[in-house]
Amino acid sequence: MKKGLLILSVLILFASCDVVVIEAPYDPRDNFTGRYTVEEYSETYDVLTKYNVRIIKDADPYSNVVYIRNFYAADIEVFADVHGDRLTIPRQIIDGYVIQGTGRLDYGDLVLSYSVEDRLDDSSLVDFCNTVYFRR
User: Fold this and answer.
1) 74 touches 52 (CB < 8 A)
2) Where does the UniProt annotation place the signal sequence (predicted)?
3) Which uninterrupted H or E stretch holds 14?
């Protein structure tokens, strides 16, 4: 009888406990981060260029910002805002380049369209680029 009462007490004790599962919050920026091989087509100059980039997240966990390193194969870093599977490069001036554009994820690859104006070049042409970032 005492064993049965002890077993029943233990079962009641376990039944009264709540199990709490803590899940890490989903961060859509994780879909963009990593190393990529880039194929960039310049509509302005009719040239295909290949190079590598790396995309990293901003350190703030509540931010929607990522950084693209070696953007335009010019060894510059631009920032972009992530919203779901879309990416926006707001207008920014970095080392004399005026950059802006948009992008989206396409089956794990990143497809970008953007413009780059080199203010240090006297030609003042704006380079319009269509680019695919292939995951490495």
Assistant:
1) no
2) 1-21
3) helix 2-15
Give SS3 for 99.
strand
> Which residue, 27, 31, 29, 47, is CA-closest to 39?
47
Residue 126 backbone dihedrals phi, psi, to 5 degrees = -100, 125
Per-residue pLDDT reduced to its tens digit, 68-91:
999 999 999 999 999 999 999 999
Say how many residues make up the chain: 136
Sign of CA dihedral 129, 51, 105, 116: negative
* 26 burial via Cβ count (<10 Å: 0-12, 13-18, 19+): exposed
Q: How far apart are the first and last CA of the chain?
A: 66
Nearest of 52, 86, 51, 93 to residue 66 by alpha carbon: 86
